[in-house]
Amino acid sequence: MPIDVLQLTPLIAAGDEDLHRNYSVCRWYDLPDRERWLDEHNASIRAVITAGHLGISNEMFRRLPSLGLVAIAGVGYEKVDLDAARERGIRVTNTPDVLTNDVADLAVGLMIATMRQIAAADRYVRDGRWIAGEMDLAARVSGRRYGIVGFGRIGQAVARRLEGFGGSIAYTSRTKKQSPHAFHSTVIDLARESDVLIVTVAAGPATRHLVGRAVLDALGPTGFLINVARGSIIDETELIAALQDRRLAAAGLDVYADEPRVPPALSALPNVTLTPHIGSATVDARLAMARLMLANLDAFYAGHPLPTPVV
Ligand code: NAP
């Protein structure tokens, strides 16, 4: 059987087993000579499996003449050229909803960890520094003004969690939602009215560096920034400068401009909490994502309607 599925990213073990049991798949990331493999097999590939932050390059797009489906195990699709896909009749699917709660949990966890210095406190105890005295005091989390940038599935799930925190919640998005929370049409207005800014907006050319110097200054020296969306949305150079100069109190980041590389200047800062893009990294979410991705693959091969199409 010719190999007709190209897998650019590993799945959780149970999903990987199902995929390899039912399809003729090549694991791209294990190939010793990718160029040669592509020259030999490019014509037979009908489906590519990828992750949101990986997508598929336009070059690979061009080199797969029989491609009919790009199945993303993830929500973001900013790294897939949707116009090129439409032109060639290539379908694109993602896995929304099944990871929403996990990413929202992490956003709130990062917010608490950052404001209460939980990671630093852990290091404090492990390093034996407690004997010498108590840590510096942290900032209160509850009762604050929370601003959510992007009010889609994840942004709204963050809001639902924050409703228990006794503060006020406001948001920005392209469109005003049916929501009891205050809508701001610009991120800078939202930042001015917030103590904590939580970024959950979709990535793309329109939101690149949406959070730059002006927004960071509007958030100010007592403000906190949390990003669980994509690194491209924040101007990382400006963020590092603001944190160094204490023009911003602290940041909690799950995503970065050039993952998995994190600028040493960022890692060196005491006022950041850093996680390695783990928003959806729970067994439960990864299993559900693999299953939904496989459901899209099955539907594509069976000629049935795709469960969660992007294009
Ligand atoms: P979603 O439901 O599509 O929500 C996206 C939000 O972004 C919507 O509020 C949308 O506004 C807004 N938006 C899109 N384009 C915009 C633009 N040009 N200007 C301003 N706002 C814009 O997506 P989701 O499921 O909540 O996921 C959000 C993002 O989280 C994903 O795109 C992904 O990058 C990221 N993510 C990260 C992780 C992680 O591991 N850290 C995991 C999953 C997802 P409207 O509502 O007005 O359309």
TrEMBL record:
- Please give the Gene3D superfamilies that the UniProt record associates with this protein: NAD(P)-binding Rossmann-like Domain
Query: One Pfam family for this entry, by name?
Result: 2-Hacid_dh_C
Answer yes or no on keyword Transferase.
Answer: no
Q: Which residues form the signal peptide?
A: none
- Residue limits of the D-isomer specific 2-hydroxyacid dehydrogenase catalytic domain? 40-310
Q: Which family does it belong to?
A: Belongs to the D-isomer specific 2-hydroxyacid dehydrogenase family.
Q: What is this protein called?
A: Lactate dehydrogenase-like 2-hydroxyacid dehydrogenase
Please report the organism this UniProt entry assigns to the protein. Answer: Labrys wisconsinensis
